[in-house]
Amino acid sequence: VVEVDTRAPGTAISTDLFGAFFEDLNYAADGGLYAELVQNRSFEYGPADRPEWHSLTAWELVERDGAAGSLTVSTDDPPHPANPHYAVLTSTTAAGAGLRNEGFDGIPVRAGETYDVSVFARLAGGPADRLVARIESRDGERVHGQAELGPLGGAWRRHAAVIACEVTDPDARLTLTAARPGTIHLDLVSLFPQATFKGRPNGLRADLAQTIADLKPTFLRFPGGCLAHGQGLANMYRWSETIGPLHERRQQFNIWHYHQSMGLGYYEYFQFCEDIGAKPLPVVAAGVCCQNSDVTGQAGIPDEDMDAYIAEVLALVEWANGPADSPWGSVRAAAGHPEPFGLEYLGVGNEDAVTDTFRDCFSRIHDALREHHPEITVIGTLGPSTFGEDWEKGWAFARERNLPVVDEHSYKSPRWFLENTRRFDTMDREGPHLYIGEYGSWRNNGRSAIAEAAYMIAMERNGDVVRLASYAPLLAKRDHTQWLPDLIYFDNTNVWPTLNYHVQRMHSVNSGDTALPVTVTGAPQEPSAPQNPRHTVHIGTGAGTRAEFTDVSVGPLSGESEPAPDLGDWQAESGVWEPYGEGGVRQTATGTDARLLLPDAVDGLSYVLSVRARKTDGA
Ligand code: AHR
Fold first, then answer.
1. Which of 47, 87, 316, 470 is deepest in the core (most CB within 10 A)?
2. What percentage of residues in the chain have a pLDDT greater than 70?
3. Which residues form the signal peptide (predicted)?
């Protein structure tokens, strides 16, 4: 029997509770949500992204119908210093040579749709004053649509045209061919569907964006995660380098081992938030990079550069909220958004260890925000794992600084979530509020989805102190998935929301405003966890030997260990075994194998097994 006390005043639930977390990992941005179809469009790929990558990755020279030529790369006088590399296409024959892009696992196009094709180009010699842009089949045999770009001049200029596509092809290619012999310099070659989400230019893939919009998230956190503070100081995500004309944005390697074109930058993130009615929740680095360690050994931004960094953080608030005639508000207005974006929350730091460097950098940023923008709710950070050492130190620091909200991360087993549904009930109501900024149970199945649902109910019941929450990660592209599990999987033409997605949606779409006391009586005993016999750990000894195995823990490489299994989970395969020690097992007669079922294990993940073993007799 479930009784709800409707006469009780209840607890007000945060109106911002269930939002979404976006980070560019698993190809979530380039090749994912960002609708650009050309890969390595600015020729800025390089070994920093991936050792085998270079400026012409995803490109090839096309010599057809008697055409001959070459495709090389130059950095001499590029369209903008932020984008130093460009392609040099030379055609030595009357029939012009070309260059062709393979897209991100191919270029998906649809019959009846129109595509914006554009390129920065200049003529460097010969009469080759025009380019023909073609969307064509993978083998080049069939043209799906084409347009002419030009006339080209001796100075860099952007040339654009529209291609009407006549064929549906999930695996097309884009080819630009010189119409005549000569040398052409090309940069920022772009092919964009006109049918982006809400029709925004330089916009987002409509089906993926709609799937996120359907969550009706109250806020959207971006750009990470670890991506926000980067691998080393030079890789720190700097918001101000991601706005403005595309060819002026500074591209970067991605901490998740690919490339960030920055085509999806802060303007596009804020625009997306507005389009889906979500509050923007940007996270800036707390002056330290990922795990507080730079490749050069420099943990934080050097003292002499901190003022400039703090000014950049303050500028973000003015860019987002300042009037159109303020210095940074005018930059936003010039980009097409004179009205303020209405920034309320700002995350500072991500999973940072509370070192002296962190304390100093964070405090300086926080002090400046408090002084100049007391209207902004600053969100601090609690280390990589709930209940870990950094989490404890993070809480102490958050209390010391009297932070309004702190960001906690929990990637755990379903069991952990179910065992922790009461933890918020006893939270200090006067201390910092919680943003559960990244959480997810170890797999995409019914058990993990139910565990997350139970945890979300616990958040709602404590919606006075749990202010914000977002499952993570959000997106994962098929064949480029680096982190499991995720909320939404996709490839170039399909989107697969998970069961966990539907749990998120169920809560966010039907979020309550007041939590009333609920009493449950006569509830059935919790059924024992379903067992998945496919995933097991076998241990054993050779004949004639006996041993004890204790302190067993098993967990995914990227996550934490499953709590020690229940003694009863062990099953004898052969020989005679009995429960022993902490989650362990021992042989009571010489024997061979025992088996431990791992109901939470996920196909395709790598696991670490640790076990304490002792031989008790025999050889
Ligand atoms: O969500 C994936 C990663 O998990 C995030 O980048 C990081 O914050 C966390 O460790």
1. 470
2. 90
3. none
